[in-house]
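Table S2 (continued). Query chain:
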Amino acid sequence: MTIKLMSVASEIYPLIKTGGLADVVGALPGALVGQGVSVRTLVPGYPAVMAKLGKIKIVHRYPDLFGAAASLLAAQVEGLDLLVLDAPGFFAREGGPYGDHGGNDWPDNWRRFAALSRAGADVAEGVLKGWRPDVVHVHDWQAAMTAAYMRFGPAAHVPKLVTIHNLAFQGRFAADIFPNLGLPPEAWGVDGVEYYGGTGFLKAGLVSADAITTVSPSYAQEIRSPVHGMGLDGLINGRVDRLHGILNGVDTDIWNPVADALIPKAYGARGLGKRAANRHALEDRFGLDHDDAPLCIIVSRLTWQKGMDLMIDAAEHLVALGGKLAVLGSGDHVLEGALLGAADRHRGRIGVQIGYDEPLSHLMQAGGDAILIPSRFEPCGLTQLYALRYGCVPVVARVGGLADTVIDANEAAIGAGAATGIVFAPDAAAALHGAINRLAALHADKPLWEAMQRAGMRADFSWTQSAARYADLYRSLIAEAA
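Corresponding output:
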């Protein structure tokens, strides 16, 4: 029997994306088809989403959803079966999904994503004629309240799973919003939405879920500690029997160097020489010198979490060793300025583009020699998986999904032909400098470097295994609820 799954998320590729969450939410439905799971995904009706909808059907109307008129729309877009919460008062805004052009969070985010979650719970309760999910899978704090609304409502018996993509983002708001959430009084408490005297959306989801997943096995263990638990380690340890670490996969149709229309020259593991055309195009795009020095890339949010403050000095060290650096990302304005300043000082050796550009990210993976990921914590990471697939050697901190997916080029791994990258201690400038030294030495040994590239390209990080694990978990939750 096919399982009917509703996924609830704040973004989905290719309609709206700020990071890896969108990639996962967009790829998982297709991966689950082969596991006997049919997915409908509920997302907000941002302008970017509404613009891509073709034929739509209004399946439910809200005269007043947290103070705004709204409708649920059904649509099929690029193979995705969607439910879209069309609420112009909440989502028809210029800026990003979560804030304005200046990077400031929308002050009514609690109301916007409570509305999304309320709609998710309503679908679980059966407001759609002829369709009701067997399981509800919600992603991060923006959708986590779906589980809480279900728990305290008629859909309490429907299995619900919450996936943590990044525990640092929790959806914490003042206590005085609680009366406006439409929850019963008993939902306010340690076993409900109350969180350190305020309202916690992710916390509410975690205590209400029948299962909790993280996006890598190592991250599932790391968040049980005070260092990485972000104040929720006690709750998570109390529910460790419900905790599962399932590694993210990549969409191997979108990220495929053999057939990537976004790069100048397609190639496979046996044709690494063809990457030269992509490297040349990448150098041109960032105004970098054409030479044989190691060309490193960064595709990242430019934040403290991602270790970008460590990269300011490390970029100078890389240039001193003769290397080059191309950076694509946005985030902390101070870090953006520091990286732009480094590019100005080292023209031809460092290039920086502020913002995000999906086609450019493909070119960077296809033309770069190595990708630098010095994160202080990393729930999974997808850029290192894309890099492995494209023969761009990952240089990563030993945390979370980075530790789970990259095999360090130590003597044993090199001897066995298993090395796929360089792994170093997190949150340490000296360790990052040492990793860059190793990068330069390994890159100078062309046969060894190409062996590492091919080993990475052979690794299987498709959704096949992870989708099977999710499907097994869904089935176990359905059986438990029966």
